[in-house]
Amino acid sequence: xxxxxxxxxxxxxxxxxxxxxxxxxxxxxLIDPRTCHIKLTQLHQTLHTPxxxxxxxxxxxxxxxxxxxxxxxxxxxxxxxxxxxxGKRLPLPSGxxxxxxxxxxxxxxxxxxxxxxxxxxxxxxxxxEGQQILMDFLNRTAEGQPCLSVxxxxxxxxxxxxxxxxxxxxxxxxxxxxxxxxxxxxxxxLPQAFQAYVSRRLNSAGIEYYPHVEYVAQQxxxxxxxxRQRGDCFNLPSGLTLIFPGVAPYPRQLQVNRYGRVMVAGxxxxxxxxxxxxxLFSAPGLNDLTAQAxxxxxxLIATNIRRLRERRLPYLYAYAELGYFLSLGxxxxxxxxxxxxxxxxxxxxxxxLRTLKVQYDxxxxxxxxxx
Length: 371
Description:
Elements: E1 2-6, H1 10-22, E2 27-31, E3 36-38, E4 55-57, H2 58-65, E5 67-70, H3 78-87, E6 89-90, E7 97-98, E8 101-104, E9 108-110, E10 119-121, H4 122-127, H5 130-140, E11 147-151, H6 155-170, E12 176-180, H7 192-205, E13 208-210, E14 213-219, E15 222-227, E16 233-237, E17 240-243, E18 247-249, E19 254-256, E20 261-264, E21 267-274, E22 279-281, H8 291-309, E23 323-327, E24 333-337, E25 339-345, H9 346-364
Parallel strand pairs: 1-2, 1-8, 2-5, 8-21, 10-17, 11-12, 11-17, 12-13, 19-22
Antiparallel strand pairs: 3-4, 6-7, 9-18, 14-15, 15-16, 20-21, 23-24, 24-25
């Protein structure tokens, strides 16, 4: 049996590792344009640690789990998916790759905003050293107090913001930090207690907060902004701007049935599955664009492929979210565990975050502790 997985993120590797565990004789292939798997939930730490600490080379993982990595990027339409299902072949630059099962886990990409010098997004931190990006900025603004803006008040933006604050303060570098948000509430999808706690942390850290303000462009050492309530535009000093405007499924969102099979033109593709941020399951399970959901979806797809090979009924996707945590710098964090009123902050929250990190690292080493 040959299975091909397109996308080497959380869902893709979860499917790959689980397939290898349940179908040891299967021939497995991974399609991804990068050379490494990047742990995006830890990317903010590259502001003070090497990017390599957040990466696992596909060559290393391929040797451990016996799969072949093909460096390629695939875009596709519904017509392509139908053709792949009919021919059981995936077109690659090196030639067509036959498959028995295809799993699409292409994830999500940052929404596009105007870019120029001094503006960086999540994809930039996947390719460049975060420490170097910050150092170049500080070297450019050696005279006077540097100004830095973070656009986007979601989890990624807040984790980068507070990590920056602690990095700069630990090195005794005075810097004017600000947070720009299109909405009027921090982390709107999470309990109200999250906003209250993060707001207090912004105030205590001396970080400026601009709600109802939209990023327009970067102009030299200034950021161009628009007040969404009044409609007028204004500029603020900003030698470095980090934009995290949220993500969208890439290259598009795939509707899948309750078992993970892709649905196209009102029909179901028997041999093509999807998981992770690019998938929307028609099932009661968690559909948020999070690593937690991506891992569980990937593992379910692997289980269902095995069950189908054994001529057994597949399982429906019914994973219920167990909690949600984010880092707020070196010594602080916030999250909920088991139920949303059970809010945990400070060092206990960081301890849980580190436990989750160890759990995933062990999974990449072949030790599955997920329940």
